[in-house]
Amino acid sequence: MKLFLLRFFTWWSGYTFGTQLWTWRFGELVGSDEGGNRYFRTKNGAIDPSLGFERRWVLYNGYADPTTVPAAWHGWLHHTVDVPPTAESYAPREWQKPHQPNLTGSAGAYRPSGSTLASGRRPKATGDYQPWTPQA
Fold first, then answer.
1. What distance in Å separates the CA atoms of residue 74 and residue 57, rounded to the nearest whole number?
2. In terms of Cα–Cα distance, which of 5, 27, 25 is closest to 14?
3. Alpha-carbon distance 75 to 116, whole Å?
4. Which of 20, 70, 80, 123 has the greatest count of CB atoms below 10 A from its CB?
5. Pairing of strands 56-59, 27-32
6. Separation between Cα atoms, residue 35 and residue 98, nearest integer Å
7. Exposed, middle or buried, 27 (CB in 10 Å: 0-12/13-18/19+)?
8. Residue-by-residue pLDDT tens, the chain, 136 positions
9. Using N-to-C axis directions, what is the helix angle for 17-26 and 2-9, rounded to 10°?
10. Which of helix, strand or coil describes residue 122?
């Protein structure tokens, strides 16, 4: 019952009941990524008359966090590329890093050495700063 109510009233904890119904009725599964997100388009690549192109969307695995969409799927969702990553043989370059979601607000967030949230003590001022004072 709780899952039904969450699907009916909230969008941040996953897809809603309306999105699930729309996907079941008009959607066609294209593929999924390593994070468990599933990617859809209109059945048979049908052109939406109001948009002039096919609709593409994602059902997130867990919370609706767009930063969990890898770059290849992002390009397909935004019509930058026509072929989904599952239909091509793509090998990442050696300089490409694996996808990492946005960690802001979590324990894994980046905190530079001068940050008040960084562990340890803040470094001493170097003395090269001179405050601006207005001319009288």
1. 10
2. 5
3. 37
4. 70
5. unpaired
6. 12
7. buried
8. 666 666 666 655 667 777 888 889 999 999 998 889 999 999 988 887 888 889 999 998 888 888 888 888 999 999 998 889 888 877 778 888 877 778 888 888 888 877 777 777 766 777 777 888 898 6
9. 80
10. coil
Q: What number of residues does the chain have?
A: 136
The whole model's pTM is what?
0.67
CB atoms within 10 A of CB 15: 19
Identity of the residue numbered 20: Q
Q: Which residue has 């935004």 as its token pair?
A: 78
Structure tokens given for 113: 């050495």
AA letter at 86: T
